[in-house]
Design a protein that fits this description.
167 residues, 5-stranded antiparallel β-sheet
């Protein structure tokens, strides 16, 4: 019984550590993504025509296999070409991203006329969807903060249950 209790304690510790690491990750990266989302909502747009749209698989020695939608076209006003690296800000790719890449290609097929939102500071930084839902980012940020606070709350709870241990 004592061995089982020790094993469960270790498991709980690992889960708590994973939660703390996830919490740290989210409170660092989610605000950066949220700032990009807020900036993109104010970007001007230009009309464009999609001339290339496909899902491409990428790999490297430093990273696992991942997919990205390659969507390129021409601007209607001057014929310059554009390629978007991201359809929108405000989401994280879970897993390889294959489903998301194919969904973006289906939504933005060759021949479709679109609005391309671009950064006035860096016109090569473009997105197809400037206004996206904040729900995912808000949820992730709240979850990250909660997971960081969890060890403190557990410590306070344990202190209430076993005050003699902390004297």
């Amino acid at each position: 019984m004592n061995a089982m209790k020790k094993m469960l304690g270790k498991l709980f510790g690992y889960v708590l550590l994973a939660g703390i690491l996830f919490g740290l990750f989210t409170i660092v990266f989610v605000p950066i993504e949220m700032a990009k989302m807020a900036a993109a909502e104010k970007w001007p747009s230009r009309k464009g025509l999609i001339t290339k749209s496909f899902a491409q698989r990428h790999s490297s020695t430093r990273r696992a296999l991942w997919w990205r939608a390659e969507i390129c076209g021409i601007y209607r006003d001057n014929g310059e070409t554009f390629c978007v690296r991201r359809v929108s800000y405000g989401g994280f790719r879970f897993g390889s991203g294959e489903a998301e890449a194919h969904a973006a290609v289906a939504k933005y097929p060759v021949g479709r006329e679109v609005d391309i939102y671009y950064s006035p500071k860096n016109p090569k930084e473009t997105v197809l969807e400037a206004r996206t839902s904040w729900k995912t980012m808000d949820t992730l940020l709240g979850l990250g903060i909660g997971l960081l606070l969890l060890p403190v709350l557990l410590w306070l709870f344990r202190r209430q249950l076993e005050p003699e241990r902390f004297e």
